[in-house]
Amino acid sequence: MNQVLPSFEALLKLAKQDPEALERLRQEHVNSAIESAPEAYRQRLAGLQFQIDGVRRTTNNPMASCIGISKMMHESLNTLKSFIDDSERSADLTQMEAATVLAFPS
After folding, report:
1. Side-chain half-sphere CA neighbours of 85 within 13 A
2. What is the pLDDT of residue 46?
3. Nearest residue to 13 (alpha-carbon basis) of 25, 29, 1
4. How far does Cα 83 stand from its chain's mean position?
5. pLDDT in tens, 41-55
6. Would you list the domain boundaries of the chain?
7. How far apart are CA 32 and CA 10, in angstroms?
8. Over residues 26-49, mean pLDDT
């Protein structure tokens, strides 16, 4: 993805004067990012963008959208953390079960 965003001031002006053009620009950048990703990730990224767009459509204002999308991100991170924690616990248990106990003379 080698597209360059306009300056903040230009984006702000676009938001005030032509919100549809700003939305088209956003969609172009999103599509470009998905298309530039490795093919193995594109379907998942498109699905994730579909979920994000759903949150944006079902909320009343931009702040509610931001909070909803942030909540999705935190839930995903918590799921990943739980998976990693469970994997580490399983690895620890496997190592303990496979350990050989040595007897030392007293």
Report:
1. 6
2. 97
3. 25
4. 16
5. 999 999 999 999 999
6. 1-36, 40-76
7. 20
8. 96
